[in-house]
Amino acid sequence: MSWLLLLVAGLLEVGWAVGLKQTEGFTRPLPTVLTLAAMAASIACLGLALKELPVGTAYAVWTGIGTVGTVLVGIAVAGDPASAGRLICIGLIVAGIAGLKLTA
């Protein structure tokens, strides 16, 4: 269950990271409220996951999911570049996340 909570926390991190741009400096009320809600929910899920998972592993996996997810959304939606170097780096992050999961 802790790993599922951590996955949800990471996906919510992607949501708030992408939502942050949509707030336009916190000047748009609805995107601002949704972004802040995603932030709070992400931290809450992370906190619950930390009841059973090592803090270093959980935090690294949480930020890794957020990083990879945000980059992929940027590529798919925002037209960010999908160069070979960026994709290789994303693969390295995914490998690190998998390694931490397997050794936890």
UniProtKB/TrEMBL annotation:
Ranges that cross the membrane: 33-50, 57-78, 84-103
Assigned keywords, A-Z: Cell membrane, Membrane, Transmembrane, Transmembrane helix, Transport
SUPFAM superfamilies assigned to the protein according to its UniProt record, in alphabetical order: Multidrug resistance efflux transporter EmrE
GO CC term, one of those recorded: plasma membrane
Database matches in Pfam families: Multi_Drug_Res (PF00893)
Family from the record: Belongs to the drug/metabolite transporter (DMT) superfamily. Small multidrug resistance (SMR) (TC 2.A.7.1) family. Gdx/SugE subfamily.
Name of the protein in question: Guanidinium exporter
Taxonomic lineage of the native organism: Bacteria, Pseudomonadati, Pseudomonadota, Alphaproteobacteria, Hyphomicrobiales
